[in-house]
């Protein structure tokens, strides 16, 4: 919409409905952060029908605003032929959520477009994808802001079908975009995730959460989960709602701990009194010592193992890269031999099946249906499995279904893991 779509007093012209007679009230929307103020002609009945927010606000039995609007409409109706000379009853909304990371007057036209489109959809006007007249119409950013507004006005249903159509029409593009091998800007992933959360759209929640856990986030602290809990002055996709932000952070930490435990497990095996050498020769003890030293050198060189001074209580730096890259680096572990007689004595042949299982089944994303059915059971943060977990055989504990979520959770959140029972 351009400047000509508004009258001099800021009232939107034909912004919400193609049948002017249906508009019997004005909704004045203000945002002081943007110096924004616009009035939109609307249908009271359609607002109440499609938005729980407006249904409560305009209820004459619950709120003074609703009683005032009801009375003014009665007075207009009683005015007979003079009704059109009286101004439409006006209701004001001034507590909009934050939609822009750095709000300024430059965002005024963007907000006007978002509100106009939302109110048109609220009035049953069909909207096509791509959005007509919207710059960079394929950007998820506009859709994310639209979802925030729909959530604020308690009207997510008007976007459910629309987002499903977008997903179906752009399935190939989105599947390619969010493939694990691609480097997608984190903001785009977060916007997709937010839309999924606000509209309960499982496909985008699953792919977005899986991607973010695997790739990491610039918003997450390297030292404390508590740092993720401050959402003051942040746009919604930078601090995902409903406990999702904290859950994703926790899941990534559990995955990192799991990968770290593989290294710790084999370092512990080769430094124990139990002989790991396969040959049983007289120099088997020397073979184990050799393998232990080479293993520690390899892990340290790859940056996946850090030696800490227990007396200084130093905190290890948390890995903030791609989880799949980390696994790929560990798979480069060479076949170390103390001499030509000691083949397959090292950790490589024992670690590879484990790393390949994790690489082939890296799913740690959130299943929204499981989350909504029983969040306590689904959450890794609030309800870790704990206990003892054993790796049985290559890939046998993984499968592409909801039960897989429980299997993954048991492995990643176990207190102790045995990686060599097979």
Tally the helices.
16
Shape: elongated
* Radius of gyration of CA atoms, rounded to a whole number: 29 Å
Structural class: mainly alpha
Strand content: 5-15%
Number of strands: 5
Lateral arrangement of strands in the main beta sheet: 2-1-3
- End-to-end separation in angstroms reads 65 Å
Major sheet: 3 strands, mixed
Order of helices and strands: EEHHHEHHHHHHHHHHHHEHE
- Would you identify the regions where 5 or more consecutive residues have pLDDT less than 50? 1-10, 17-21, 222-229
Q: How confident overall, as mean pLDDT?
A: 80
- Percent of residues in helices: 40-55%
Domain count, please report it. Answer: 2
Describe this structure in words.
The protein has 422 residues and is mainly α. It folds into 2 domains: 167 residues, no CATH class; 158 residues, no CATH class. It contains 16 helices and 5 strands. It has a 3-stranded mixed β-sheet with strand order 2-1-3. A two-stranded parallel sheet has the order 4-5. Helix 8 packs antiparallel against helix 9, helix 9 crosses helix 10 and helix 12 runs antiparallel to helix 13. The longest helix has 27 residues. The N and C termini lie far apart (65 Å).
């Amino acid at each position: 919409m351009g400047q000509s779509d508004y009258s001099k007093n800021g009232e939107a012209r034909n912004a919400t409905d193609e049948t002017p007679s249906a508009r019997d009230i004005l909704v004045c929307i203000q945002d002081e952060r943007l110096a924004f103020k616009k009035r939109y002609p609307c249908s009271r009945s359609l607002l109440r029908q499609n938005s729980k927010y407006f249904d409560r606000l305009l209820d004459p039995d619950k709120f003074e605003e609703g009683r005032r609007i009801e009375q003014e409409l009665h007075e207009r109706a009683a005015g007979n032929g003079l009704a059109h000379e009286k101004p439409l009853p006006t209701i004001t909304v001034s507590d909009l959520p934050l939609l822009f990371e750095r709000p300024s007057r430059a965002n005024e036209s963007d907000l006007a477009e978002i509100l106009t489109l939302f109110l048109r959809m609220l009035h049953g006007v069909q909207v096509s994808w791509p959005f007509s007249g919207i710059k960079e119409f394929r950007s998820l950013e506009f859709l994310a802001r639209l979802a925030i507004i729909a959530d604020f006005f308690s009207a997510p249903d008007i976007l459910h079908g629309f987002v499903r159509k977008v997903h179906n029409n752009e399935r190939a593009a989105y599947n390619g975009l969010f493939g694990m091998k691609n480097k997608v800007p984190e903001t785009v992933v977060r916007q997709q995730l937010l839309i999924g959360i606000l509209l309960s759209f499982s496909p985008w929640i699953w792919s977005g959460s899986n991607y973010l856990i695997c790739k990491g986030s610039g918003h997450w602290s390297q030292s404390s989960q508590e740092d993720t809990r401050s959402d003051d002055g942040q746009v919604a996709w930078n601090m995902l709602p409903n406990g999702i932000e904290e859950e994703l952070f926790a899941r990534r930490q559990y995955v990192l701990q799991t990968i770290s435990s593989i290294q710790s497990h084999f370092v512990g095996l080769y430094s124990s009194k139990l002989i790991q050498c396969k040959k049983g020769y007289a120099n088997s003890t020397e073979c184990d010592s050799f393998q232990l030293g080479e293993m520690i050198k390899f892990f340290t060189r790859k940056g996946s193992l850090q030696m800490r001074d227990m007396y200084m209580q130093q905190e290890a730096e948390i890995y903030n890269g791609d989880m799949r890259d980390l696994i790929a680096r560990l798979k480069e572990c060479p076949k170390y031999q103390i001499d030509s007689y000691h083949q397959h004595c090292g950790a490589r042949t024992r670690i590879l099946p484990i790393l390949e299982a994790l690489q082939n089944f890296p799913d740690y994303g959130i299943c929204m249906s499981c989350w909504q059915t029983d969040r306590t059971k689904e959450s890794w943060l609030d309800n870790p499995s704990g206990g003892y977990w054993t790796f049985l055989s290559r890939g046998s504990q993984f499968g592409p279904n909801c039960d897989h979520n429980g299997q993954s959770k048991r492995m990643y959140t176990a207190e102790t893991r045995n990686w060599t029972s097979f």
